[in-house]
Amino acid sequence: MATNCLASVTSLLPSTELVSRSRSEKKCTSLSWTSSLPQLNISSASIPNRSNLSINKRLVIESAWTRRSRGEAAKRPNKKSWKQRTDMYMRPFLLNVYFSKRFVHAKVMHRGTSKVISVATTNAKDLRYTLPSLTDHNACRVIGKLIAERSKEADVFAMSYEPRKDERIEGKLGIVLDTIKENGIIFV
Q1: pLDDT at 18 (0 to 100)
Q2: Is the pLDDT of residue 25 over 80?
Q3: Cross-strand bridge partners of residue 119
Q4: % pLDDT > 90, the chain
Q5: What is the mean predicted confidence (pLDDT) over 19-45?
Q6: Residues 150, 119: contact at Cβ < 8 Å?
Q7: What is the DSSP string of the chain?
Q8: How far apart are CA 107 and CA 79, in angstroms?
Q9: Strands 93-99 and 104-110: what pairing?
Q10: Under a CB-based contact definition with an 8 Å cutoff, are residues 180 and 147 in contact?
């Protein structure tokens, strides 16, 4: 074991250090991991002139800059941002509204488990035959009221809505969201 320790010490030391060390220091007295590290005595006389230090500093700075700029994107191209990772827990209930030519559909889902909390559609039997039109503003108000009531029954009092790309919150969608707000649901 002592010969392995001696070999590791001698492989780490430069050749000038080996000459200056005495023969009594060649044997390792401890079996810990620190005994395999060389004991170097550095003095100010062993440091080269200042012009070489400025060149070395510049090299270190350049290498650190290139490592940060390229390495992070190359190592983890699919890493999600903090918002993408935590948004599911900060706003767990998501409202989804869909307007077809014939009906209005709305549902509230839990993002983490993908469970449907409440659903309302004008295609349901109780609404299909009672409403005069299944797609007008009055139908949107009924859908908003039903979603709010069914969400409260499931103990959901706050939800969020993420508009799709180039989608404005106006018209029928605005009516559904306003009706849900008027019935006591908070949008986060």
Answers
A1: 47
A2: no
A3: 107
A4: 50
A5: 56
A6: yes
A7: -HHHHHHHHHHHS-HHHHHHS-GGGGS----SGGGGS------GGGS--HHHHHHHHHHHHHHHHHHHHHHHHHH-TTPPPHHHHHHHHHS-EEEEEEE-SS-EEEEEEETTT--EEEEEETTSHHHHTT-S-SSSHHHHHHHHHHHHHHHHHTT--EEB----TT--S-HHHHHHHHHHHHTTPEE-
A8: 30
A9: antiparallel
A10: yes
Alpha-carbon span 137 to 52, nearest angstrom = 78
Backbone angles phi, psi at 154, to 5 degrees: -90, 10
| 171-182 vs 137-153: helix crossing angle, rounded to 10 | 40
Question: Lowest mean pLDDT: which of 4-8, 49-53, 89-93, 97-101?
Answer: 4-8
Report pLDDT digits (tens) over 144-171: 999 999 999 999 999 999 999 999 999 9
Q: How far apart are the first and last CA of the chain?
A: 66
User: Which pair of tokens denotes residue 173?
Assistant: 């969608």
Whether the CA torsion 114, 119, 122, 128 is positive or negative: it is: positive
